[in-house]
Amino acid sequence: MPRYLPPVHFPLPPTAVLASLGAAWRDRGQQEERALAVLATRFPGRSITLTDSGTSALSLAISASAALKPARAPLVALPAYGCPDLGTAAVGAGAHVVLYDLDPRTHRPPVPRPR
User: Fold this and answer.
1) Can you tell me the distance from the alpha carbon of 3 to that of 96, in angstroms, rounded to the nearest whole number?
2) What is the pTM (predicted TM-score) of this model?
3) Residue 76 burial by CB count (10 A; 0-12/13-18/19+): exposed, middle or buried?
4) How far apart are CA 22 and CA 33, in angstroms?
5) What is the dihedral angle through the alpha carbons of 48, 54, 60, 61, rounded to the nearest 10 degrees?
6) Which long-range contacts (CB under 8 A, 24 or more apart) does 94-97 make?
7) SS3 (DSSP) at 75
8) Please, what is the angle between helix 54-66 and helix 84-92, to 10°?
């Protein structure tokens, strides 16, 4: 029996969209600084980088980890069944991708059985 997944629906009234656009226009110079300040209090670390997508953020994270061993291209293991953006991020970071299977019951990498 095929399953049906309805499209995502988030009822946002037009007045809310117009109010947010007006606020964005008025505060266009201060939004990034405020966002960075809020993120810095919630997620302390050495630095914060704002990205346009999760794929870009993952690509930056792979590149940053590859910088720890600059002699060779990073090797990234990804599940063979997953979001295409995972592979896109790895390729964007210049990584070599190795795919592995998932256990269909647990959706985790299979655990080798002792012989």
Assistant:
1) 35
2) 0.58
3) buried
4) 18
5) 80
6) 94/63, 94/66, 95/62, 95/66
7) strand
8) 40
Residues forming a β-bridge with 96: 75
pLDDT at residue 29 greater than cutoff 70? no
Helix or strand (DSSP H, E) at 48: none
SS3 100: strand
CB-count burial class (<10 Å; 0-12, 13-18, 19+) for 89: buried
pLDDT digits (tens, 9 = 90+) for 71-111: 677 888 888 888 888 889 998 888 889 998 888 888 888 77
- State residue 1's pLDDT score: 67
